[in-house]
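[09:14] KT: can someone run the structure on this one? pasting the chain below
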Amino acid sequence: MYNSRKKPVEEVPLEPTSVWSCASDSCNGWIRENFAFSDEPACTLCGSPMEKTERMLPALVNTSLSMTSRG
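[09:31] RB: done, structure tokens below
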């Protein structure tokens, strides 16, 4: 039997997060700083330079960084 009652949605806590944002006014591209592949990335959507900014985002952990440092 199907239960049609919706469970309450848990609120995801947000935290200030460093991101790279596209400097182009016509592009909305951005990436979390700890997920970028270079120290000064170019926008993958339009190729423009990116600038460091901060956004309120859900917390994520990039486990691939800790995996590569184990050597």
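[09:33] KT: thanks! Confidence is low (pLDDT under 50) at residues 66-71.
[09:34] RB: yep, looked fine to me
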